[in-house]
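Slide 14.
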Amino acid sequence: MNRHVAWILTLVAGAWGVQSAPAQVANPPATPKAVAPAAPLTPAQKAEADKRAALAMNPILAEWEIRSTKIVSLDAAFDMVEKDPTFGNTYFRGRAMLQSPDKACLQFQLYKLDADKKPIILVNDKGKKVAQLEKEPERRLVCTGTEVLQYTWANKTITVYPLGKQAQQRALQEGPLPFLFNMKAEAAKQRYGLWLSKEFQQEYVIDIVPLQQIDRDSFEKARLWLNKETFLPNQLWLVKTGNKGMEQYKFNGPNDEVLVNNPMDQKWFGFLNFKDWKTVVNKGDQPKAADVGQGPLVPIDPKQQAAQPGGRSRPR
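Slide 15: predicted structure.
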């Protein structure tokens, strides 16, 4: 399964039990004056420091679990920079929409770039910053509850990943962020190494290391900036496995709102057929045409999926 498809349901962006509110920008203390570097820790000292940092996570995880039980839906806007050592930076405007227990939609739209290959952001007559985006999305990932749909605008293709009962649960658990949606503290500690790296007045900085192979396939380490007031993320950085780049998500920009428990338009969680698009069914659970809506159905082998024409030249 495509790496982004695998964790579509886990990008819930901290769906905690608060009323609709924008994520807040952290206010770390001023940079201290230069001091002499501290002596390096001995292995025993480092182990003790790591133990204390892990223990400091217990009350934070407990609060997450309490808050997460109150969430039924989430609608989050964000900016994402994909840093690739070969292809350079790619800039996206994103939107994540989720509905308990098993529906999700994650959409990415490319920024228009200036001569320096930086995102173009204009200011309107009301002084509000407005992102300048390409006309169509670059891709959209949807979980209907029974299947995952990947919409790719470059080749006008909808790829369908049918999910059996066990596969549905696996899809909900894969990827970097399952501990942020319907999170259980003990399960999170079994699956991840979690350390409180820093603490500022308005946010916690948490380092994350995956302990299970299912997560190591997606990322090898991560850092999360968690807002203390809302228990929503301000930022998330994911280092890809094998040091093949990084994804940086920012949820706390001036125009980025994270809306919790608002009514959701159900069209985002169903199959949408576009004129002249092709529907490709990934082999696995032997789906029927009626299960995925209208459009030509072309079964493919998952091993051949990467060779489909018309996609992006950079790897996903």
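Speaker note: The CA atoms of residues 74 and 168 lie 20 Å apart.
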